[in-house]
Request: fold
Amino acid sequence: MPPTVPRSWPRWSANSPRATRRWSATPAFGYLKTVSDRHFAIDPDKIEEEKKFDGIFVLRTNTDLNPLEAMLCYKQLWTVEQTFRTAKHLLSTRPIFHKLDETIRGHVFCSFLALVLKKALEDRIVALGRTSSWPEIIADLESLTETEIEHDGKRFVVRSAPRPAASLAVRAAGVALPPTVREAAAG
Reply:
């Protein structure tokens, strides 16, 4: 069943001034008036006129979606874009210049797979009734270390204790960490 919009929400047509209002990449210029060839001033009338739109979020679409569905689709798009930006930052990815179609497809596939896995982990964390930020998860996972030590002629591997976000991520993924202390494999 598609989501419904509460009756209290305004319904705007495509011809509504709110739906067709244009936004400038530099909105400050919209509030200036020309005083002379070389001088500009802030136009208080324009600012007053624009106040009626304060706090209003406007989306324009050419689909048959109702306003709630359009807003949810836009939020999903925003989430995907934000995830790409976050992934590029957190994973410290740099621009990669591919020359072959196969390598471009491979790069896009790996990026998409990383996003799918990130979303799946976030969904599993929510299913546990918990929340955690992606930067916390990455930082806590990066803090996990293993150190090989030798004692009385035996070699052991000692694992650090997981911090809270790492512990939550590992539990949500259904993965078991190795024991805190274990005998090192003969190598």
The first strand starts at residue 32 and ends at 36.
